[in-house]
Every structure is written in C-alpha cells, then in structure tokens.
Design goal:
Rossmann fold, seven-stranded mixed beta sheet, 18 strands, globular
C-alpha cells in the first residue's frame, strides 16, 4: 500500500502560513501505531484532536471504515471535510465528545491537548464510555509533554506507559480502565460576585471558569456603560465560556444576543453558562468559524476579545480574521468593542478594516477600543 499523501493536506479555512502545518510527526506515529494491529476494525477506532484530518484520513485511506472522530475547532472540521473531498476519501463520522464518539471503541488515538483539564475530561470520557478493554494512545511533541500528563491519565487508567521518542514526538499508551465517578468532572462552575455572573467550563475552554484579565477589563467597561433600555442585536464573537454574552444579557433584557466560537469546548461551556445565569432563552450559542454562519450586517454591537495564539504559535492573523468577520457582520454605524494586549497595537488595523476607532480604556496590559462601521 503506498504511503498516505500527508503533503496534500491543507489547513483551509484556518490560517495558512509558512510556519503552520496541517500535520506533524505525531499524527504519523499515531497512524503507524494503529495500523500495526492486524485485528483493527474501523468501527472500534475513535480519534480525538485530529486538527485537520491527518489521522482520520490516513486510517480511512488504509481501508478502515467507520472511524469516529472528534475535533474541537470548527475550522478543523471544515478542513477535514475539504481534505477528504480533495483526496476522494469517505467512510468516517464526526461526533462531539460524548457517548456516541466512544461507545464500543477499543482503540482511541489522541493528539495531546495543551490543557491538563482537557486531558482529564477526555480520559474520563474514554474510561466512562469506551469498551472495557480500550487502549488510549496519546501523542505529542516532546517539547510540549510533561510527567503531569502521565499522572492525569493515571487517574483513569491503571497502566500508563511512555514510549521511546521518535522524530521529536512521543506516544503514551494507557490501558486498564479505572472505575469512574458517578458524575463526569466537567463542566465546572464558578460564581463571580463582582459581576453577578456564573461561568461554566469544560476542560478545553480557555481560562476555565475564571475571568481572564482581558475579558475582565472589557466587562468593567460594559458595567460602566450599562443602559438597560437598549435594544440591540449583539454578537459575542469568539465567546469562550460566554462571560460577555451572559453579562450583556443580564443587563439588557431586551437585547437579542448570539454567542459564537470556533471551539466546541467553548460552545458547550457557553451554553452551560447561559443556563447557569438564567438567560439561555435569550442567548443563542453557535459553533462556527469566525461567525461564518451569521448573516451580513446583522449586528448593532459586537463584543470581541480576540486570541493571539494559533495552537502553540503566536500569530496575529487569528485576530485579523475576527476583525474581518466583524466588518462583515456589523451594520453601517454599528460598533465593535474590542479588548487586546496593548503591545499588539491593533488600532490602525481596526480603523482600516472597520472604521473610526477610539480608545475607551487602557491599563498596564490591555487596551479597549470602540470602532464604528463606516
């Protein structure tokens, strides 16, 4: 059988750049480990964290039918579909991180997540829903791996064995499912009395159930300018756990609000946040790529705390894509409230993409600006 064409894979619609790739050595090692088993059945394989489809499509190309896959990012899901179409491959199914992904699975392949909390939630889900004899094979780049990851896996599995490093990557094989608690460890919740706000978070959500310092500054700006009589169409773009959307809904009972994020963990968290704050009937939470499924000129106000990382890489293009999305989504005269690290100096870019931009607040680390759609 010829080698799989990894080089044909693309990240699109995610950011494409010289230092960003659609696969890595860990993907190859996970595939090689899986295909080394002569008894492997596709319907007994689940793949988690396959960013652009390299693992899933390589297994499908090798003849495994019925592989199940969970990807956190909306862009990764689109990229998988596009890469599958480009390569003429099919026969896999996409799932959320739930029972449908893992029930009956005897082999789970995992690209190790950055957050230990996300790894904890995944390991619990595998132990909770997969077959009793399941083997979890987790892989990552050696420079990003820690002993603590083994310890987290050890809470759900009795045997955790790190393999020899190859090509700057390493696999960890976990087996022997331990008993699971009655309730899953996530979502977790925390109440923030200063904003009368409760946040819920799944393991993969940025900042967990804390309020990150950038969001805190933007919440303070919103708290200083509350107008309960305002009726607006509002979008929380890149909503994370939904702090901004929930706070706005609590203080603007007539507003129509959409919270959207490309992360499935963030979306699941935001939905739980809306329930916890009693605003689930007034906030719609969607999972898509930079608001791509939302109509043009549909917002009077957009709230945005953009990321400046893509995976392990610092890359400002992630923020630019959200600025471009805001330009499409805002009606003429609509406003974009943005908070960002002051060192990034986005004001000129916001002026170019949106329109007149003014500084609202500046702290030692963060700047809040208001941009008006021309």
């Amino acid at each position: 059988m010829p080698d799989f064409s990894y080089d044909r894979l693309r990240r699109s619609p995610d950011v494409e750049a010289e230092n960003l790739f659609a696969y890595d050595a860990t993907d190859r090692m996970l595939v090689e480990h899986a295909l080394a088993s002569s008894e492997l059945v596709g319907t007994e394989v689940a793949v988690i964290g396959d960013e652009y489809g390299a693992i899933t499509l390589a297994l499908t190309d090798a003849g495994l039918e019925g592989v199940r896959v969970h990807q956190d990012s909306a862009t990764g899901r689109i990229a998988l579909a596009r890469n599958a179409e480009s390569l003429g491959l099919a026969g896999f199914t996409s799932h959320e991180l739930d029972r449908s992904l893992l029930e009956g699975a005897r082999l789970v392949l995992l690209q190790l997540p950055k957050a230990l909390s996300e790894l904890e939630e995944i390991a619990d889900a595998v132990a909770r829903w997969a077959a009793p004899d399941v083997v979890l094979v987790a892989g990552g780049r050696v420079k990003h791996m820690t002993i603590t990851q083994n310890e987290v896996l050890g809470r759900s599995f009795s045997e955790v064995q790190a393999q020899r490093a190859e090509r700057k990557s390493r696999l960890i094989v976990a087996s022997g499912v331990r008993p699971v608690p009655d309730e899953p460890p996530y979502p977790q919740r925390a109440t923030h009395a200063e904003f009368a706000l409760t946040l819920a978070s799944h393991g993969g959500a940025f900042a967990a159930s804390r309020i990150d310092i950038g969001t805190r500054v933007l919440l303070e700006v919103l708290a200083d300018s509350v107008d309960a009589d305002a009726t607006q169409r509002v979008i929380d773009l890149g909503c994370g756990t939904g702090a901004l959307a929930a706070f706005y809904a609590l203080n603007h009972p007539d507003a129509r609000i959409t919270a959207t994020d490309r992360s499935a963990a963030a979306v699941a968290s935001a939905r739980e946040t809306m329930i916890a704050n009693g605003v689930a009937d007034r906030v719609t939470v969607t999972h898509d790529d930079a608001g791509a499924d939302l109509p043009d000129a549909s917002a009077d106000l957009i709230l945005l705390n953009p990321p400046f990382h893509l995976g392990a890489s610092i890359h400002t293009r992630a923020a630019t894509r959200l600025f471009e999305a805001a330009a499409r989504l805002l009606r003429p005269g609509g406003e974009l409230l943005t908070v960002y690290n002051s060192s990034l100096e986005y004001k000129a870019e916001l002026s170019r993409l949106i329109g007149r931009t003014e500084q609202v607040r500046r702290t030692a680390k963060f700047t809040v600006t208001r941009s008006f759609k021309r």
